[in-house]
Design the sequence.
């Protein structure tokens, strides 16, 4: 399975000390250089399961750089180049761009649901609370309710 990530999911999970979820779900996560650079601004090292992949310069990447930030643009372009199964994106604008290119996007709240179903975390509600407190990542109230109900926590 090929999974490409933007910065938000990775940095939020690292700050919340929950980064074990990604290799537990996917094994390896591929990131472009722009995402690696963004992560290294705030964290001392990249997790071993993050593989930095080169992104080809092309018109798609140029167009994406106009529409979204550098990390998102490179992550989307890399996901297209690699025919990724999933791209981890939380920004709405970035998700719209990726979905328009036929990519399947997954946001951090959905990862928490998958992590609970795989037995990687005991509670989605606790994960949301930890992400908010340590990872500075908030989940909209309605989204949280729907997802918590889907795993029997609401």
Sequence:
């Amino acid at each position: 399975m090929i999974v490409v990530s933007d910065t938000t999911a990775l940095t939020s999970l690292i700050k919340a000390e929950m980064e074990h979820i990604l290799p537990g779900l996917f094994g390896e996560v591929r990131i472009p250089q722009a995402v690696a650079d963004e992560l290294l601004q705030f964290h001392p090292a990249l997790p071993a399961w993050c593989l930095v992949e080169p992104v080809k310069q092309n018109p798609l990447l140029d167009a994406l750089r106009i529409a979204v930030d550098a990390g998102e643009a490179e992550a989307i372009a890399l996901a297209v180049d690699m025919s990724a199964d999933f791209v981890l994106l939380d920004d709405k604008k970035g998700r719209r761009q990726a979905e328009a290119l036929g990519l399947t996007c997954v946001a951090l709240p959905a990862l928490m649901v998958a992590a609970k179903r795989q037995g990687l975390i005991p509670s989605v509600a606790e994960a949301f609370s930890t992400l908010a407190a340590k990872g500075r990542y908030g989940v909209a109230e309605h989204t949280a309710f729907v997802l918590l109900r889907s795993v029997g926590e609401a």
Observations:
- The two ends are 31 Å apart (CA to CA).
